[in-house]
Amino acid sequence: MRTGRCQCGEIRYRIDVELIALYACHCLECRKQSASAFGMSLEIPRSGFRVTRGSPRFWARDADSRGTVRCAFCPNCGSRLWHESAPDSKRLTVKAGSLDEPVDFASAIHIWTKRMLPGFVIPEGAERYPEEPPE
Known about the structure:
It is built from one helix and ten strands; from the N terminus they run βββαβββββββ. By secondary structure, the chain is mainly β. A seven-stranded mixed β-sheet has the order 6-7-8-9-4-3-10. The longest helix has 7 residues, at 28-34.
C-alpha cells in the first residue's frame, strides 16, 4: 500500500495495487506542470486508487497523443495529484512527487524524449521512447 497527499494535506489518497509503470515524462506539458525538467507519474489501475480525504478539482487539457487529459488538483494549494483520460478510465497516472514515500527512480521509463531539455542525461540502459510507449 502507498499513500500520498497534496502539499497542504487537504487531499489524501491511498493506492492498494501494484504499479504498472513509473514514467519520467519530458513532454512540454509535464515540464510546465512540474516547473522542472520532467514530470514523474505512476501508472496504476484505477480500481486500487481511493481518495481518503478531501475533494479534488479537475481541469482538462488536450494531450499530444491521446485526446483529452483530466487533471486532478487540490483546490486549496493547487498541487497536481493525478491525471486520467476520463472519469471512468481503467487506469490513471498519479504524480509521483505527491507520494508520502519516495519511489525508486532507477526503474523509470523515459517518455517524450524528443522534447527533453538539452544536457539532460538519461541513465544508460533505461527504457526510453521518443513519444508515448507502445500500448
